[in-house]
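Narrative of activities, Objective 1.

The group set out to show that a structural description can be obtained from nothing but a protein's sequence at a throughput compatible with the screening campaign. Below is one input-output pair from the validation batch, recorded exactly as produced.
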Amino acid sequence: MSKKLFIKTWGCQMNVYDSARMADVLAPLGYTPSDEPDGADMVILNTCHIREKAAEKVFSELGRLRHMKDEKARQGDRMVLAVAGCVAQAEGEEIVARAPFVDIVFGPQTYHTLPEMVAKAHRAAGAVLNTDFPAESKFDHLPEDSGGQGVSAFLAVQEGCDKFCTFCVVPYTRGAEFSRPAFQVLAEAKRMIANGTREINLLGQNVNAYHGEAADGSTWSLARLIRELAEIDGLARIRYTTSHPRDLQDDLIRAHAEVPQLMPYLHLPVQAGSDRILAAMNRKHTADHYRAIVDKLRTANPDLALSGDFIVGFPGESDADFAETLRLVNDVTYAQAYSFKYSPRPGTPASTEARQVPEEVKSERLAALQQLLDAQQAAFNAGFVGRTVPVLFDRPGKRPGQLMGRSPHMQSVYVQASERLVGTIADVRIEAAYANSLAGTVETGVYVSRTGHSAGVSA
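Output recorded for this entry:
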C-alpha cells in the first residue's frame, strides 16, 4: 500500500541530491513523494548547519510537525518523523533530548540504511540515532535510480572536505574528502540521460578535488571525468559546483577551453579579498592567487562568467580588510554572488575568536558589498539584451503559456512558448533583463531535441 513521504530540504545542492536519493531508498518500502507534510506517513527534515540559528529553525519546524504527528495518532495511524543532514550530524543527541517525539535522527553518510532505521523506529520505543561515519561508502549501497530526475539534474561525485576553514562545519558534518569511483559516476550519468536528463551538474563540497578510481585502476581528475562524460550521447551540458581555488588545476582550466558541453559558468568562492583575513580563515590561498586563477580561466575561455561566495565581518576584519574585498570584487567582476554576514558555528575555531565584529558593522559592510555585487549582476544581464542565446528549457513558468530555461551562463530565461520545448535547447533572442532573470522570444529556426537531433521550431 502506498505511503506518503514528505521531505523538506534546507541548504546546498548536495542536500537536494541527498533528498532525492532518500526517496529512492524508501521507494521499495512503498513510500511515494508528497508535496505536503499534512497527513504524510513519513516526514524527513534534511537540514543544513551553515546558516545562523540553523538548529533553532529545525526545532521550530519540529514543533509544527508535532501537532500533525499527534493528529495522525488520534486517527489511529502513525507519522514517522525524522531529522537528517548536517544539523542531525552535529547535534543529534540534543535533538533526541529536546524533541523526544522524533523517531529517527541520522547524518548525511547513513541514509542508505533508512529501511533498517524505519524498521527499528517501528519496533523501538525511543528514537533511532545514527550519526556514525561508516567505513563503507553510502554510494555503494544506494539503489540504481529507476525514475527520471528531470531535464537538469545533480550528480554527486565527491563529498566531504579536508580544508578545515575556520568558519566552516562541513569537515565535521560531512567527513573527510571522498571521491566516487569514475565508473560508478559514468554508469549513473548514463541512466540519468536515458531517463531524459540533458544537463548534469556534478556536485561536491570540493568538487574539483575529485580523484576517482577508473575501471582500469587509474585515477581520474575532475577534468578527465568531464571529458568522458562529454562523450555520452544525449548529454548536452555539464556543470560542476562547488570549487575551491586551491584545487583548480590547469587540466580543468583547459577543459573550459576544449569541451563544448562544459558550460561557461563557474562558482568559485573566495570569501574575502584581504590576505590577512584569508589566512585567519585558513583558506590556504591569497587574493592574488585567486586573481591569477581567474585570469587563466578567462584566457582559456573569454566567455566565462563567475559567481562567488563572500563572508563579511569575519572576526578581526578591519575597514581596510573589507576595502580589499571590495577591490577584489571590482577587479574580478561577478555575474552572480552569494554574500553573508559572518555567524559563529559551534565547534569551529572562529567561533571562539575574541575579536568579533559588531553586528551593526557587519550589516553596513554587507549592504555595501551587495550593492556592488547587484550592480555587477545587473550589468552582466543587461549585456545580453539584443543577443541570441541557446536556452535549455526545463520547466513551465509561473504564468500560463510560459516556459523557463537556463542560459549557458546559468541565467533564468523566460519565454512564451509551447510546453513541447521542455527538454530541448532552442535559440532565444533576449529582449529584457531583470535583476535575476532574462526574458525573450524563441527564434524560428532549429533547436536541439532531447535525443540530440535537430528539428524545426516556431514560437
